[in-house]
Amino acid sequence: MDIISDTKPKDPFTITYPTQVQTSLHSQATLARFDPSGRFVAAGRADGSARIWDLDTKSTVRWLEGHVKSVTCVDWSRNSTYVLTASKDWNVVIWDLSSETDPPKRKNIIRFDAPVASASFHPRNRHVSVSQILLVLLTPGDAYIVDLRSQHRSRVELCEVQEESDEEYQSHSNKHRSISTVARFDPSGKHVFIGTSNGQVLVFNTRTKTMIARHKITGAGSLKSLEFAKNGRRLVTNSQDRTLRQFTLPLYAPPSVDGIYIEQELEPTYRFSDPINKVAWHGMCYSPDGEWLAGGAADNATHRIYIWDVGNDGQFVTALDGGREPLVHLHWHPHKPAIASTTNQGNVFIWHCPTPERWGAFAGGFEEVDENIEYEEREDEFDIEDESEIALRKQKEEEEEVDIHSVEVEKRGDYWKWNAADDEDIAWADDEPDDDNAGWKLKILTEEEEPMN
Amino acid sequence: MDPFAGMDDSTTDDDNASQATEDDPQVPENKEPPAPAPPQPPPPTSSSRAKPHYELKHTMRGHTSSISAVKFSPDGTLLASCSNDRVVKIWSPFTGELIRNLNGHTKGLSDIAWSSDSVYLVSASDDHTVRIWDVDSGLTTRVLKGHTSYVFCVNYNLTSTLLVSGGCDGDVRIWNPQKGKCIKTIHAHLDYVTAVHFNRDAGLIVSCALDGLIRIWDTNSGQCLKTLAEGHDAICQHVQFSPNSKYILSTAHDSAIRLWDYNTSRCLKTYTGHANLKYCIAACFSVTGSKWIVSGSEDNKVYLWDLQSREIVQVLEGHSDVVVAVATHPQQNMIASASMESDLTVRVWVDRVALPQ
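^ Those are the sequences you sent over. The predicted structure of the assembly is below.
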């Protein structure tokens, strides 16, 4: 909304993180995610259902009823046509919101042989509107890339390379085989990052499904979650030692035929932790511009979100207080200073950044000032000017062309520089697009008519 | 907008009062000096731009009192008109046939709007209610009650999840059409709210009123973000966002239509040459071919201006009374216009070039 930034005095210290709860959505949810447009929130529930909230009206527009055990993860396709729910009932369901029914039609049901811990759409898929490549992590620790495209139909497990020749690693792997605890696509979708129970981050190529790097994170312990800044070069990890670490990722070379991978220890650029209470973190999320990091504290008495300014030396900025219902999940809005945080009572708080009421806005042509300023008269301010001259000048000004029609293409999701022409990985992902089209609108289903008075 | 709101029903004090305020041709007395006259349109130059060639295609009769609004459905298949005779009529713009009457309001109608899927139509009435109609069945699906006076204007947002209405009580109300409930009431103006419109992402609402002010509101918080004051004798009658929501188009009682950049509060274009001193006349954008501004006029004509050069490019003659409502077809070069008491027709005009040969 240009108007806000433009009517306010330009303030270099403009706050760009949310500060207040705007709405609480009573969802009985355990997690909630914004869609890429920011208009909807999908809230997954312990009873196996999920609700789609419309934030314009703050009302539920769809119930996704299908799972019989709790929903562990939700994700949206690029243009919000498809929603994915993963559940402890061993299934991943892809819902087609463009169907004119409630609950919506299921586009795919993908069955596994264990509870599903997480699932997500391929991000490049989102970019060109294909929702058919999924990354799925099962509770026992198996990560799969599931490809639903007819030409590529497959389900491939991502396996860590055990190097027999390397003595150190032989002894290491003999001690205990690591278990995958978290799996995420990076924002380009070229790589899959897998966090393990012994403090390692493994990097796989999505197309070839081969491991291309292994990063040891000293002192972290078992990894709990991974998040990326939208440019894909920064990674933040949440681990057993109650510390969030931010890393700058190296550039990964395309996978080599002989299966060589990088073995590299990553040094965090910042570590974030609560020095006083030493709380653990239920989750973290970057702001869309990557300037801020929000951490959801796993405090069992209060709802707290810590904000760090990662664009400015990683300084701690504030702790948002959301009351007495402890936080279990949080997600930052795709392009606004807004956060959806879920409480253990199942409420989803929508945080926003309120603008102060400006009474000057009610009077046309007036400007509000914060303190007295000495008014300096312009040289020609009270000069008498010929009316016809004014009219002539106005007419000149009106010659300027205006564009009333074209809409600037939103920049969301385009932080990653794509060069599909010479990139095999992207060409592979772009194969077989589906019908998740931009400009699609959710059909409004009017409820049963209430008796009219 | 019904310029004769309550006129055929002038038994109550309220109605008389409304008439006095609304139809008063006199500009409210103002001590401030009059605004400079809007600049005259530039002398017609031999422009290389294309000119429209609209011709009358259909004349639809049926309304028995002043028509206040015409609107094409977003899919382009239907044309709706509403009138002070309490009826919404649904027409085929291609054949000129009457398809359906929507009956139910107990007083005259001032405005209508289509949902983006062309399934629902919403109407604003002097009976203080807003009705949502299922156009296919012709039945009312919701009656929105809350306004304490005549409802004068109404609009959907682009996704049709929200409705906004403005009333003669000076309030702007935001509704959830699915539930039929009022979400927010903004005490927006001190006089009749004559137009309300959402921007593309529904984050902003623009409103204007007979108090002469154009205001921009934040939909979520209901806060006023900006006020644009027109010239002192230019009481604004109608406002809307441009198709890309970067500008707003306003019509005012100094016979001028203005295009504003609301971020800088600057008037970018002024369109003049028509007559608009008394009635609430709406203007609209035509973007299907070349870019025109289309408006009715009190000299019984429809005017088309070139968006950029501000020249009058065509004048459509045919109506025998003030043309208060115009609409442009969403996909084709087609214009609908409607007129008042002694004319009572809806006319459909089609660009000759666009006609099948």
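The first strand of chain B starts at residue 54 and ends at 61. The longest helix of chain B spans residues 13-23.

Shout if you want it in another format.
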